[in-house]
Write a structure and sequence with these properties.
There is one protein chain. By secondary structure, this protein is α+β, with helices and mostly antiparallel strands. It is built from four helices and seven strands, in the order βββααββααββ. It has helices at 44-59, 64-80, 113-117, 126-133; strands spanning 8-9, 20-21, 33-38, 85-91, 97-104, 136-142, 145-153. A hairpin with a 5-residue loop joins strand 4 and strand 5 (97-104). The longest helix is centred in the middle third of the chain and has 17 residues, at 64-80. It starts with 7 loop residues before the first strand and ends with a strand.
Amino acid sequence: MYATGYDTILTGQPGGEGPQVPDPRPPTDDGHDVTEILEHQPQAVQAARHAARAVLERWKINGDAVLLVVSELVTNAVEHAEPPLALHLHRERAGNRVWVGVTDGGPAATESAWTASCADDEHGRGIAIVDTLADAHGTRPHSGGTTHWARITA
């Protein structure tokens, strides 16, 4: 199973108060784990897809489903959660399964401007898409916020 340490506080506040996300790390020696810190803004979705595509190419995995899940989970974090924001990718050793995790600072107190401006039928399909594409998915609240994850066979 994928595990991370929550060592770096990225709030910039004196005294180290605020949500924690894992330290950004390069791939491990075996190249199976990657963490990318993202800006908590709409452009994070494109940055996450770009980073995930590069990792999947390095892993020689056709990852269209992975890229769509990454897009949906990061979009949800930007629209419905507080910063900070991090993308985690883990290649499982058996088969072509990829674990995707998106860690955020927990639920936002109010809706984002985009979500508030949309009619109900203009949003709200992301988790249904993840449910269709993933072998399993879930949410893990922790002291640093929340990690939304999905396991996908690519």
